Amino acid sequence: MKALTSERPGFQDWIQAARLKFLPQGVMPVVIAGTLAFSEGTFNVANFIVAFSAAAAVQIGLTMFNDTLDYVYGTDCKPIDAKNPFSGGSGVFTCGLIKPRQSLMVIFGLYLFALMCAIYMALDMGWGVMWIAIIGATISILYSAKPLRLAYHGLGELVMLLGYGPVLTAWGYFVHTGMVSWDVLLIGVIPGLCMWTMILINEIPDYEEDRAAGKRNLTYRLGPKNAKNLFIISLVVLYAYILALVFSGVMPPLSAIALGGIPLAVMAVRIAHRYYDDPIKVAMANKLMVIIYSVTTATVAIGMLT
């Protein structure tokens, strides 16, 4: 561990702060949208690369931004060796590896890069790209930042469902086509539901810290046991929704391979049900949900190619 007086964070410190295991949540909606555009013959390679890069930058920036504000607000106080590795913050602040002002400078750079990417695509595909990007950026900032701090008032889970679901998927599709359809929005609900479900299980280990800091998220309001039950229900809804889109013709039949994640979901449910009141032992359920997100969104994207 570095001394608390360290002034120059190293490369590994920034990798720890970026929490790259959560990167798929920021880019997979763009991938799903890209494969849908490819299947329709409207795929734009350059815009896909730029959109993917911008989405990755925003995801890393948002992760660091939430981490920074949770530390500043007193929500995240545990050292890294006392944390569930899939919930709470990265531990870079509590361990003195990075200072908040250093983090904010990097976050500003990441968001500025994303803005430049959005402007580039707006000049190519129209300013609708920028308006959708503004909606997404506003959601990501107000999730933790004052004055709204949506995550602290029981609205964070819902806005993340929308922002990392239909909004980001619509943006990822618009950069290819210059338009958005209802089918795109409906398909975009899938990564949104995955995000909602992941947030629920990740909030459970942080219940005591969040309660002490007054972070009134859904788990705070429901209690860990009921939040665990909502997590289970959300997984059921996720796979039922995928089936509904396949049977209704919104998604091609091959997209049903996304149901291959169900065994992982069953494992996550069993662990969450048994260990929801143990922040460390429930970590395997958190890890499985990260895998479920990637498996589900990747298989949906593959299904779009038919």
Blueprint of the fold:
Elements lengths: L10 H8 L5 H16 L5 H28 L27 H26 L2 H15 L13 H22 L4 H22 L3 H7 L4 H5 L1 H24 L14 H14 L7 H22 L2
Written description of the protein model:
Helix 2 (24-39) runs antiparallel to helix 7 (182-203), helix 3 packs antiparallel against helix 4 (100-125) and helix 3 (45-72) runs antiparallel to helix 6 (156-177). This protein has a single domain (11-304), classed as Farnesyl Diphosphate Synthase, CATH 1.10.600. It is an all-alpha fold. It has helices spanning 11-18, 24-39, 45-72, 100-125, 128-142, 156-177, 182-203, 207-213, 218-222, 224-247, 262-275, 283-304. Mean pLDDT is 92; it is low at 1-6. The protein is built from 12 helices and no strands. The chain starts with 10 loop residues before the first helix and ends with a helix.
Sum up the structure in keywords:
12 helices, mainly alpha, 306 residues, Farnesyl Diphosphate Synthase
- Rg on CA atoms, Å: 19 Å
Give the rounded overall mean pLDDT. 92
Give the termini separation.
Answer: 50 Å
- Architecture (CATH level 2) name: Orthogonal Bundle
Sheet having the most strands: none
Annotation field: number of helices: 12
Order of helices and strands: HHHHHHHHHHHH
Number of domains: 1
**Named CATH topology:** Farnesyl Diphosphate Synthase
Task: Find the count of extended strands (DSSP E, 2+ residues).
Answer: 0
